[in-house]
């Protein structure tokens, strides 16, 4: 009986400690540009073959290279090249790419039907971009891309145009 009572007390204390340390009220410096409580999902329209190729960054949240390139490789591996550096990813679900050997994930939140404009960001909320195949994208597609960022919890007030 003493052992059971001790187990209950220890469990209750552990639960109390977990609850009080979970929400201290202190600001979370790791939030980045995205509300972490908002749902983030990859687009079901994602098609690795159609998404492959060169993209120009139009606007960004966080650090952004002016150009990106994606290439479907062998065995389900997808290559992302930025500023001459290539990193390999595995497509884990439509629009979700996980970096091999890492917990880093990219999420393609939206592409237009012609695969001319896309919205992509990292799952941690540190970076997002509106990408286009052209340096002069259609205003309607850019407006739609901004709405998608907002819907997925990104702070679009901090969106910056990328200087070429």
CATH class of one domain: Mainly Beta
Question: Low-confidence parts, pLDDT < 50 over ≥5 residues?
Answer: 1-29
Distance between the termini: 73 Å
| Chain-averaged pLDDT | 84
Query: What overall geometry do the principal axes of the alpha carbons give?
Result: globular
Stated plainly, the CATH topology of one domain is called: Lipocalin
> How big a fraction of the residues is strand?
25-35%
Q: What is the CATH-assigned architecture of one domain?
A: Beta Barrel
What's the alpha carbon Rg, rounded to whole Å?
Answer: 20 Å
Q: Strand count, sense and closure of the main sheet?
A: 8 strands, antiparallel, barrel
Question: Helical element count?
Answer: 3
Q: Which structural class fits the helix and strand makeup?
A: alpha+beta
Q: Spatial order of the strands in the main sheet?
A: 1-2-3-4-5-6-7-8
Helix-strand pattern: HHEEEEEEEEHE
CATH superfamily of one domain: Calycin beta-barrel core domain
Question: Keywords for this structure?
Answer:
disordered N terminus, 8-stranded antiparallel beta barrel, globular, 9 strands, Lipocalin, 164 residues, single chain, alpha+beta, 3 helices
List the helices and strands and how they pair.
Layout: H1 2-22, H2 48-51, E1 53-61, E2 67-72, E3 77-82, E4 85-93, E5 96-99, E6 105-111, E7 117-122, E8 128-132, H3 139-151, E9 160-161
Antiparallel strand pairs: 1-2, 1-8, 1-9, 2-3, 3-4, 4-5, 5-6, 6-7, 7-8
């Amino acid at each position: 009986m003493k052992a059971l009572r001790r187990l209950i007390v220890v469990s209750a204390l552990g639960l109390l400690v977990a609850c009080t340390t979970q929400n201290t009220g202190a600001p979370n410096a790791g939030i980045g540009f995205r509300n972490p409580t908002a749902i983030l999902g990859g687009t079901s329209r994602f098609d690795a073959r159609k998404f492959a190729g060169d993209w120009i960054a139009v606007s960004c949240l966080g650090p952004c290279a002016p150009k990106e390139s994606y290439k479907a490789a062998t065995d389900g591996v997808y290559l992302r090249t930025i500023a001459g550096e290539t990193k390999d990813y595995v497509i884990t679900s439509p629009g979700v790419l996980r970096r091999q050997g890492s917990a880093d994930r990219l999420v393609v939140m939206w592409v237009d039907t012609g695969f001319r404009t896309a919205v992509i960001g990292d799952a941690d909320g540190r970076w997002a971009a509106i990408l286009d195949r052209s340096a002069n994208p259609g205003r309607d597609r850019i407006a739609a891309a901004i709405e998608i960022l907002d819907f997925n919890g990104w702070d679009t007030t901090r969106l910056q145009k990328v200087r070429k």
